[in-house]
Amino acid sequence: MAHATSLNEQGKRGPNEMLCVRRDWLLRALEEELPEGTIRYSSKIVEIEEDGDAKILHLADGAILRAKVVIGCDGVNSVVAKWLGLAKPSYSGRLATRGLACYPGGHGFDPKFKMFFGHGFRLGVIPCNDTDVYWFFTWSPSEHDDDALAKKKQFVLTKLRSAEIPAEVMEVVERSEAKDVLTAPLRFRPPLSLLLASISKGNVCVAGDALHPMTPDLGQGGCAALEDGVVLARCLGDAILGGGGGGAESERIEAGLREYARIRRWRSAELIGTAYVVGFMQESSNAVISFLRDNWLAGALVRKLLKMADYDCGKL
Q1: Helices 249-283 and 221-240 sit at what angle, rounded to 10 degrees?
Q2: Which of 89, 166, 243, 268 could cross-link to 212 by cystine, CB 3.0-4.6 Å?
Q3: Range of 129's domain?
């Protein structure tokens, strides 16, 4: 049987608040703040060349760009991170299935984040608004789970039925359309590798998943990327406007990126390491760890989750 825990009204516990934001809506809102034509799609970097203070970027669509600054936000398989020499992300040994259920007439769920821990899995459910409910299911696959990537939703439902999950939660998974259900392996960059890594080199740096790919156990991947953006904008703004000291602009940019790397290095390593440990504890099928988690550690893990989210990266 699954063990459940939840946060109270509005996802609050003391000064904390937990909200669910659809990523496509967030990206659309950010895009609308940029001049038209700023974003190029289908433009993956395939090669980076150096030309003095500039970088020459060869894109998958055949285009070639000359860049004064290169900020790699190209995800867990980042070409820019590889160019910088960052360690390749490792497989965590777990998989995640994520879905979105739509209730056109309203779902009726309280604004709470609910988690259920079963034998080797974790299920989370949280409303996005009055009509959409987001859910995730993470687990450690066995040799009998080879078809999990193909069956997706049916695989999750089978696991949940054996754990006596409440009917209204089961309905969230059942209601999800196949196009809104995705399954993928969970990977992370070894946190210790970041402590000595080159997060920036010259006028090149990385941010978001390209910097700190992590397991989703803290729900902080997207939030950390936004933190990166604020710190990076502040450091680059000071450099370009001359607030970062004397010297040529290229030298100030390099110094600004080094400062960004200094600020984000420890935060990134801590997030990755904490997410991995929290996920391991929550999904462990070991009898001793499961007993401690269900009877003593559930509240501590939730408090740790909230503590990691309670971070001030400063203002622009």
Answers
A1: 170
A2: 268
A3: 94-187
Please tell me whether residue 29 adopts helix, strand or coil conformation: helix
Q: Is position 215 within any domain?
A: yes
Same structural domain for residues 168 and 195? no
Residue type for 5, please?
T
From the list 72, 73, 54, the residue with the least C-alpha distance to 64 is 54
Pairing outcome for strands 3-6 and 114-118:
antiparallel
Count of structural domains, the chain: 2
- Pick from 185, 236, 235, 237: nearest CA to 213: 185
pLDDT in tens, 16-64: 567 788 888 888 998 999 998 888 877 889 999 999 889 999 998 889 9
- Do residues 200 and 300 share a domain? yes
Q: Own/partner pairs for 262-268, CB < 8 Å, 24+ apart?
A: 263/231, 263/235, 264/199, 264/207, 264/211, 264/212, 264/227, 264/228, 264/231, 265/194, 265/195, 265/197, 265/199, 266/195, 267/224, 267/227, 267/311, 267/313, 268/191, 268/194, 268/211, 268/212, 268/224
Question: What is the model's pLDDT at position 246?
Answer: 60
Predicted confidence at residue 1, as pLDDT, reads 47
200 with 161, same domain: the answer is no
* Residue tagged 């009917």 (tokens): 167
Is 282 part of a structural domain of the chain? yes
Residue 203's nearest CA partner among 272, 164, 274, 254 is 254
What CATH number is attached to the domain comprising 280?
Answer: 3.50.50.60
User: What's the confidence (pLDDT) of residue 12?
Assistant: 45
The three-state (H, E, C) secondary structure of 35-68, written as one string: CCCCCCCCCCEEEEEEECCEEEEEECCCCEEEEC
Longest distance between any two alpha carbons in the chain, whole Å: 65
Are 259 and 200 spatial neighbours (Cβ–Cβ below 8 Å)? no
The residue among 163 and 90 whose pLDDT is bigger is 90
